[in-house]
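Hi there,

I know you've been waiting on this one. I reran it after we fixed the sequence typo, so this is the corrected version. Both the input and the resulting structure follow.
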Amino acid sequence: MNYRPTWAEISLPAYRQNLNLLARLLPAGVRVIAVLKANGYGHGAVPLAKAAVDLSSPREAGAPRFPLWGFGVSSVEEGLALRSAGLTQPILILGSLYPFESFAAAL
């Protein structure tokens, strides 16, 4: 039985619009860690990460640049998935490195 039926859908255009709004509202010098734990909370970490990277690139005149520092993930495996997708930004592992064999992969 499903006691808490939920449905969540991410629209990449809406996500981009939200990131652009955030870029306009943040004070100068502030940088953002995009937290993409659990595969972007089930919505696809790689497409969300690539959208944030795209908006952090140099933009046309007048368009704010999204101040991306990097990504937060819950595990080494999630970080490796972003690396496998070609993302080179810093990755902060918010969870544990247990089992400790994952330490080498994290480096």
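Quick highlight: Residues 76 and 101 are 10 Å apart (CA to CA).

Best,
R. S.
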